[in-house]
Amino acid sequence: MCPHAPKSPSPRATPEGIVHDEKAQLDFSQSMSYGDYLQLDAILNAQKPLSPAHDEMLFIVQHQTSELWMKLMLHELRAAIRCVAADELGSAFKMLARVSRIMEQLVHAWDVLATMTPPEYSAMRPYLGASSGFQSYQYRCIEFALGNKNAAMLQPHAHRPDLLAQVQAAYEAPSLYDEALRLLARRGLAVPASHTERDWTQPYAENAAVEQAWLVVYRDPKQHWDLYQLGEELTDLEDAFRLWRFRHVTTVERIIGFKPGTGGTSGVSYLRKMLDVVLFPEIWKLRTDL
Q1: Angle between helix 161-172 and 137-145 (nearest 10)
Q2: What is the CB neighbour count within 10 angstroms for residue 194?
Q3: Which of this chain's residues are annotated to bind substrate (predicted)?
Q4: Does residue 61 have a known ligand-binding role?
Q5: 115 labelled as ligand-binding?
Q6: Taking all residues of the chain, what is their mean pLDDT, rounded to a whole number?
Q7: 155 assigned to a ligand binding site
Q8: Dihedral angle at the C-alpha atoms of 76, 81, 87, 88, nearest 10 degrees?
Q9: 272 annotated ligand-binding residue
């Protein structure tokens, strides 16, 4: 055969042929399918726009998917708190790293919502009533688990005893940082009793002695390696949380400017105040004093 003669074309694989060759299961009349396992009928039918506005679907999906990520975040945070309390730091580190990555997903979700313009939002805003993101009970449980306690934030859930019980439990429990400080004390570091046995419902108050305890860790990482790593996991987490809050502020300002929020807050001004909240103050201060 002439080496320059055109070769016969190879038979082209078709999607149907590939599926047949792989012996993929195609009949799910008697077994569980992908959609069954994920309960996609319930999930994909949970979007119920109230307005005729095209962009309301984006608004609903954005917030519903954020709530799903927050569900996973709470699952990981609660387990991490239990692990820190039990001195199981290896497991806690994996969970806290996952929480930080989830927070990154939430940060990037604002990029999609930011494609909504002011006129597009205005077309659907009247249909939101008094509903607002600060009423999210999952978000409130996350804030409480991270130590930002505020009794007033229980009230939006008073009409739902089942949800109030969850938020109340998070409000009354030691936060992640509380358990971290109790761990430092168990390891022999000089954390004052005022910060290891206190009223967990009160907002955390920065303490110079706590910073000194962390400084012992950071000045000798090899001696206190797992505590040093815990400090850095907390830093990563708060760093990611700050970015989420910042993107929230900028996205809201981009879409509604300085109009009041639907839930009665001052809107952007309220969100900017949240940027000043520091969850783990000694972890940040020690960087200056180290």
Answers
A1: 10
A2: 11
A3: 59-63, 121, 125, 262
A4: yes
A5: no
A6: 91
A7: no
A8: -10
A9: no
- Model pLDDT, residue 193: 96
- Mean pLDDT to the nearest integer, 142-153: 95
The reply to whether 102 sits in an annotated binding site is no
Is 248 assigned a ligand-binding role in the annotation?
A: yes
Q: What size, in residues, is the chain? A: 290
pLDDT, tens digit, 9 for 90 and up, residues 277-289: 899 999 999 999 9
Is there a binding annotation on residue 256? no
Q: Is 212 annotated as a binding residue?
A: no
- Give the number of other CB atoms < 10 A from CB of residue 88: 13
Digit-coded pLDDT (tens) for 224-270: 999 999 999 999 999 999 999 988 888 888 888 877 776 666 678 77
Q: What CA–CA distances, in Å, run from 110 to 48, 103, 236, 264, 282?
A: 21, 11, 20, 22, 30
CA–CA separation, 276 vs 249, rounded Å? 12
Contact 218, 228 (CB under 8 A): yes
The answer on whether 249 is annotated among ligand-binding residues is no
- According to DSSP H, which parts of the chain are helical? 15-21, 34-38, 40-44, 56-85, 89-113, 118-124, 137-145, 161-172, 176-186, 208-219, 225-256, 268-274, 281-289
User: Which of these, 277, 287, 283, lies nearest to 230 by C-alpha position?
Assistant: 283
Helices 56-85 and 176-186, packing angle to 10 deg: 20
C-alpha closest to that of 144 among 111, 176, 190 = 176
